[in-house]
Structures are given as C-alpha cells and as structure tokens.
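Page 37, continued from 36.
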C-alpha cells in the first residue's frame, strides 16, 4: 500500500447549520467556523469536512443543491468561503467540501429548464419518463419513503426519478454532457484551494436499466431502492472517469459514502488505484437494520460492534484505508448507540473513543463527539425536523405502534440527534447563538459542554486530545497508522482488544466494554502504558485487571 499525504491526518466533520452562529439568526454559518478555527487547531484536527453550504431550499438540509457555484446566504457568502479556506491553511487545516452529485434541487436551473422542455437538452440531464395509463415505470421506493417517481411539473403525462426527496431529482449520469458540467464544477472548487471532497450517496449514481419491478417488501406495494442499486452494473466507469478528470489532477483527498459494497471490489474503491482516497466503514452503523423500518431495528451489542470492526479491519488490510466513524450527520450520537443504556458516562465515552481511534484507518470526529454529546429526548414529533425521521414515525404508526412507542423508536435513530446545536458552554442556547436556534438545543448542555471540559484534564475533550497526540507522536505514529490489526482474545464477551503491529513495535489496545471487571493475561509482560482512561491499571507485567469500561493502550 502506497503511503499518502493524508494517512496520518485526523478529520473532523462540521454540520454548519449547527456549529456556531456568528450573527444571531439562529443558524450556524461560515464566519462561525472561521471564529472557531483556533479551537479546531487546539483539538488537533487536520482535515475539516463541511456539510453542504451551497444555495439550497433545505428540503433535505442542504443536500438539495440549487446552485453549486454559490453559498447559501443563510451561511454567508463566497467571500466568506474564500476567507475560510485561506485562514484554515494558516492553521494547517484542509477544507473538504461535500460533493452531492447523485441529485440536485428541483429549484436548480437545470431542472427548471427540463420542466420547460422535457425533450430538450436539459431534460436529458434527468431521468424523465412517460407515464403510461397513469402508471409509473417501476415500483422502486425512495430512500425517504414513497415512490421514486413524481409527476413532472407542468407535464401530467410525464414523471421524474428521485431516489431521495421529491425535491431532489436524480441526475442522469448516463449523459456525457451532464458529466462534463459536473467535472467543470468539481475542478472549479479544487482550483479554489480546497483539499478535496466527501462524496455523498455516490453509489446511487448508477441505475439498473431498463426499469423493472422488484419484489414487494412492504404493504405499500413497493420495493426498496437498494434492490435496484445492487443490480446496477458499470458504476466503476463513472467513478474512474471522475477520479481521472478531477481528483487525480489535484492530488485531492476524497472519501466516499458507500453502502453495501461488494468486499471483492474494495480494492477498486480504496486501493492504490482506487476511485477514492478512502471510504467510510458503515458496517456497525447498518448492523441490526430491518426492511420493516426503524421500529424493528435491533440495538447493537458490544460483541456485535467488536465483530463488525474486526471484520472491516480484515477486509481493508493491505488494500487501503477506511475512514472510521461512530457518528455523523446522518446517524444518532455514537455514545447513545454503542454504549448500553444506563452505562453512558465519561469513562465509557472515552472507552468508545479509544476503540475508534486506535483502529487502522482515518479517524473522523463529528462535531460534539469530542465532548461526548448524547442523543436528544424528543417530547413530540413536532420537535423533529429531519424528513427521514418523520417518514419513519409514520412507518411505525402504520405498523400499529402507539404514538409514544413510535416516538421512542425514532428517537433512537433520528438524524436530528446529531444535528442539535454544538454545546459550547452552559449559557443560554449552549453558547451556540444569541438568537433562537433553528433546532432545539439538547437540555443536557448545562452538564455537557466544551467550556466545562476545556481545562479539565480528566474530561472527554482532553482525552480526545490525548488520542490525537498519541496518533501523531513520532515514536508511535508509524505503528498506529500502518501497523497490522489483529484481534486479541475475540471469543471473550464484552472485551474489545486488538494489537497493532509493525516489524519494530507492537501495541495492545484493551477495552473492557462492561461494568464488571475483566482480567487479561498476556504471554509476555507489557512494557509501558501509553494511554489509560482511568487513573490506575490494576496489575503489572503479564496480568492485569480492567475496571468497568476501562481502556488502555499498552506497548508490548
């Protein structure tokens, strides 16, 4: 595996609407990010991925782009973006933009022109089809619920495809003119000096054609879009062309949002000649999912989480780098998902962070993760903004759940859990805004906030700083970044332990993922404790006992 400039970096995701509001309108903005660059440098991150801040009607919170070349006024101006890119470079931070090219907004100029003339040049930028006897071409269900087909405005005899929201018409990648427009836009941003892109929903750009129905999997008579995606052939042709025309020219960092990839094709995605620099490991995020809906999903256990990450490490070894996450803007808070209910505290939060950071791959921190932000407790569906959560609430009701149970089921997985404003301090609105926040602040901000942790050596925030410092320590960074991952005593319940090894060094990461203590025996005594989320390690040499949720990094 070739060594790349980004291998030793630490990445951080910002959801701009909820990060920091600089002007009191209740919405986070680019100037807010500029103000917080010193904080990001203090934390130790090198790459910052910013979720969409392009012009958008925000039907899907910015993932419905109406103008790829402009910044939405709610977030600032293009001058603000230029300043952010330049200022970030002074802190040795590279800015990564969100690349949303499976679809655009129905308010984009291309779609407006397509509606004016469906048979013209711009009509071919989308999937526009005739409706025969009022019937749509196939029974695919969108990722957000309902049919992927929607009547074309002004043309009741025609329909357009949207794999996501109806205000997100899918772009027709089969059309080379469309691809040229996208490549021109991508290179325009790279010319501005950004470090690269995170590629949103990228596996969806290739459709299985011609259209056909798939087996019905819900009472609505439709079939999930994933069935079609699994049948699609030729995705690599599009991704390879985009890589060669854009990313490779600039030596840009790219990370793909890819679900349900074939393990045999991993080398094509993230190998030395892969389409992307990296891709997210979602194996633990999708564990326990149900086709019936969120209400039927299983909560992940510590053993299942361990098995997911070990399988991913095995798949990627010698191939390329995964980007490791426990949460992002599309997921609930990781500490509320992976730590059993009732066990969530600072010690267990540090234990989870240790697992994520010490795996091989690029660590991605989502804003607020570094202070241990937790899921929101929704009091009513009226508090929910996220369209997928609203859809899943209705799915739960349709399945017969009473309203309180339906609310509880969606609360566990809602994307709004991660979109509540960043908790900067214990002042009004958690210091996020002087106005009214666009989404309710989590009431626990008085207990969980950055200000209370920043100068506390035992805080979750300071533990993240220690993890980042260890990853960058010249004495250990080679083994942490490139060392082979091998499971250690994987048959034991609630113990997540593994070694990271090069010819020169071996580290053991041992995390007791339960409240009861566990004793660990080694073949040879450890040499040194590099990191410990508790003050002491009970035992010496070849045998030690881990307390509840104790996590240690040992040099062997």
């Amino acid at each position: 595996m070739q060594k790349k400039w980004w291998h030793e970096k630490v990445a951080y995701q910002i959801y701009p609407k909820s990060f920091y509001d600089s002007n009191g309108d209740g919405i986070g903005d680019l100037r807010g990010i500029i103000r917080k660059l010193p904080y990001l440098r203090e934390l130790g991150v090198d790459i910052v991925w910013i979720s969409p801040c392009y012009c958008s009607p925000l039907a899907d919170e910015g993932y419905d782009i109406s103008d790829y070349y402009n910044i939405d006024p709610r977030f600032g101006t293009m001058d603000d973006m230029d300043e952010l890119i330049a200022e970030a470079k002074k802190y040795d931070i590279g800015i990564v933009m969100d690349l949303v090219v499976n679809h655009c907004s129905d308010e984009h100029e291309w779609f407006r022109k397509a509606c004016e003339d469906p048979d013209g040049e711009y009509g071919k930028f989308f999937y526009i089809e005739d409706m025969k006897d009022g019937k749509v071409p196939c029974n695919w269900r969108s990722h957000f619920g309902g049919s992927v087909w929607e009547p074309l405005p002004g043309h009741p005899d025609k329909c357009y495809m949207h794999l996501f929201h109806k205000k997100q018409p899918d772009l027709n990648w089969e059309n080379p003119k469309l691809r040229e427009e996208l490549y021109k836009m991508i290179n325009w941003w790279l010319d501005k000096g950004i470090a690269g892109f995170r590629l949103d929903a990228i596996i969806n750009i290739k459709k299985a054609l011609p259209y056909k129905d798939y087996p019905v999997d819900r009472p609505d008579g439709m079939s999930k879009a994933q069935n079609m995606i699994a049948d699609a052939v030729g995705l690599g042709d599009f991704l390879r062309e985009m890589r060669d025309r854009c990313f490779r020219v600039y030596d840009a960092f790219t990370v793909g949002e890819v679900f349900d990839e074939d393990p045999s094709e991993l080398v094509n995605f993230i190998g030395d000649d892969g389409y992307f620099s990296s891709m997210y490991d979602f194996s633990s995020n999708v564990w326990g999912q149900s086709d019936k809906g969120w209400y039927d999903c299983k909560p992940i256990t510590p053993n299942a989480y361990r098995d997911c990450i070990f399988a991913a490490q095995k798949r990627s070894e010698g191939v390329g780098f995964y980007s490791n996450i426990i949460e992002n803007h599309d997921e609930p808070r990781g500490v509320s998902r992976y730590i059993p209910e009732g066990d969530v505290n600072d010690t267990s939060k540090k234990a989870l962070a240790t697992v994520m950071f010490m795996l091989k791959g690029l660590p991605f921190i989502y804003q607020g993760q570094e202070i241990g932000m937790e899921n929101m407790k929704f009091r009513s569906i009226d508090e929910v903004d996220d369209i997928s959560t609203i859809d899943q609430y209705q799915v739960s009701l349709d399945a017969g759940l009473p309203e309180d149970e339906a609310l509880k089921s969606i609360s566990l997985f809602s994307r709004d859990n991660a979109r509540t404003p960043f908790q900067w301090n214990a002042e009004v609105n958690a210091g996020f805004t002087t106005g009214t926040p666009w989404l309710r602040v989590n009431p626990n901000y008085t207990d969980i906030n950055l200000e209370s942790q920043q100068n506390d050596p035992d805080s979750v925030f300071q533990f993240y700083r220690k993890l980042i410092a260890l990853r960058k320590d010249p004495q250990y960074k080679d083994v942490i970044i490139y060392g082979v991952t091998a499971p250690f005593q994987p048959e034991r319940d609630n113990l997540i332990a593994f070694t990271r090894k090069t010819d020169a060094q071996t580290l053991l990461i041992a995390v007791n993922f339960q409240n009861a203590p566990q004793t660990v025996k080694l073949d040879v005594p450890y040499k040194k404790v590099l990191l410990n989320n508790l003050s002491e390690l009970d035992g010496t040499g070849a045998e030690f006992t881990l307390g509840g949720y104790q996590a240690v990094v040992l040099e062997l």
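The chain has 18 helices and 23 strands. Flag for discussion at group meeting. Residues 176-191 form the longest helix (16 residues).
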